[in-house]
């Protein structure tokens, strides 16, 4: 049943389909010659921006206070009746860097948006989001004083200028008719970034920008229309990982923003005070502490000395950099990254709770200088607790998405290397500090330096409850004192990033690597490469020459295809695995196996039934001639006339322009189903990401991907003799300016057969058509002993149930349509079977098969599936 969703798939929406799917040019459409002429409004706005800057003398330092009060958004200007500022604020910036950044943003985002939306719709979206975003932002500013007087006052007297407001607003409005992939990514990314800027930066412009994003999200459908795909949130596991990674990365960028911005004032900008310059030198602080060791000036001076300078600032930022590295691991689905991210959020929660206890429960001292706030209150103490709590909830709720493991021994080697690196760094620090002890106030001894080393690795804010053993007084000592921790964290981040770049394998990475090696050196069935996919466990034959891939679900040991190994030991492998499963209390079930395994299990007295129809093209004398191949020849001829070519790529090394389009096409398909992507023997994007899997794409002269297929190797005695079709998707919508090539699947399969035949392959398998059979009434049934009459009866009942299920699910998955489509190539048909020793276990086996294919289906998705079946919606092919 590995081809439940591998028919000729319609993955697009309206005729006004996404430009982001065209040639990897992103969600904004293709760049064309004469881009300024195609974007007259944004070109005029760039000109107006710089003319206003030059005329008003605002290029270097932004508008003067007097001018800002007359062109910028703010509560004070509005109190004076300057309503026009809601519009004019978008034509000024705060300085030269801001003007350059705004110009880049307009050219990179606003101009493509105008071409995509049309000038009139773009102007409408920009003006409405600029004005309503300003009004909503001012409303938030007025309410902020009720919960945070300090932040509210900054917002009340602040003035906001900059074109980012209408750019962000127009972008969010434009997502309404984008495809699923980029609509989700842009919305999640923009909202995560703008919320982070508002909560950590906290300037009025940040609040207004967030408000504009919300307004754009609300009015998008009214301005540009709604995508035919709708606002579906169902996506692949791969895309879910990307979205979670975006959220976690935004949570890490917030503290960094607060740390680096001298004007950060948001409710989460408590870290801003950590990075101000020191008011005293080290000798002055030592003098203050000698006079009053417990005095506020002494403690404040020690804290500021620890926090001042480039080194301490970078050290304070390194945990956030580490979380960014973990976010990249989350994007890749790594379980270690998930564990690390959860641990980071738990630590932040613990520190927030400790801070609360220090301040309000007198757990340590009522005079804590934590976060450096002169006037801490309950609100400012509790708000930092909310951010890690929210991220922790997101991570826990999405735990199942992160199940990718590194190869065996990766983290053992990483831990060993990290430990060695730490020991070497400690030795260098102790030796260097001993040689430079003249520059260390307090004359530390070697034991003191050893004891101090762990503190050098900790961001200085977390050391405020500990008195420093000594302080540096010269440049060399300062370098050792402040930069040792930075070097440690940089090495830690580099090491963790290295583990994420290691190839991903199954849950038991050692067994998965062993199984892959045996398969590549031995023999297998057309499905055997699927045994290398994640989620499988492995039983190896006693002589170590073969294996069976399986997964245990509800007490059923469900295999993936035939045993891999020597064909003359097939029976031994079947019997050995059955005994192994029985020993563990499992019911063995060989699923999607060939006739060879079925004959072995029949001899053992097992029951069995056909579950799919394998379609095979024998190569060597392939010729798409004659009337019966008319559709195939038409596809090949149309491709030639349309400038469509078939190109082999490997997904891990393919250009981003290709892989992004493949991902977008796949996401549209999953979103259209409203169901989670299936697994088990159904390959998705994760299974494409394998250097041994070949991907054939249909691309035109503009590098637009019109269709994609993936092919899995089939080994015999260590040599690839054939290839099996797995992933199969085509574009069927109309990207702006691009005519979609509809017979892409016929073209790709025919091209693959011709190309692989030229390489010497013996056959290509078009994979199975599950729950569909070729009518062959005279086909003899497998012989069964008289003792198994009851088993045969139950098997026939289940066979009838599967036949009914195939007819019922046809409107959703098109099993029989898939078989009919593959019949265009007039293949050879091979039955695929499911065999089992105990017919009484058939209900459990059926449940296990369903859970294997849909392990993550929710109740709501199940209800939608039933509704779709009842309504009889016909799948487009």
UniProtKB/TrEMBL annotation:
Report the main location listed first in the record.
Answer: membrane
One GO MF annotation is: serine-type endopeptidase activity
One family from Pfam that matches here is Rhomboid
Looking at the UniProt record for this protein, which Gene Ontology cellular component terms does it annotate, in alphabetical order? Answer: plasma membrane
InterPro entries in the record: LPG_synthase_C, Peptidase_S54_rhomboid_dom, PG_lysyltransferase, Rhomboid-like_sf
* Domain Phosphatidylglycerol lysyltransferase C-terminal residues, every copy: 517-831
GO biological process, any:
phospholipid homeostasis
Q: Which residues cross the membrane?
A: 41-63, 83-110, 122-147, 153-174, 186-204, 210-228, 240-260, 309-327, 336-358, 378-402, 414-436, 480-501
Domain of life per record: Bacteria
Topology relative to the lipid bilayer, per the entry, is: Multi-pass membrane protein
Task: Tell me the keywords, alphabetical order.
Answer: Cell membrane, Membrane, Transmembrane, Transmembrane helix
Does the keyword section mention Membrane? yes
Keyword Cell membrane listed? The answer is yes
| Protein's name according to its UniProt entry | Lysylphosphatidylglycerol synthetase, C-terminal domain, DUF2156 family
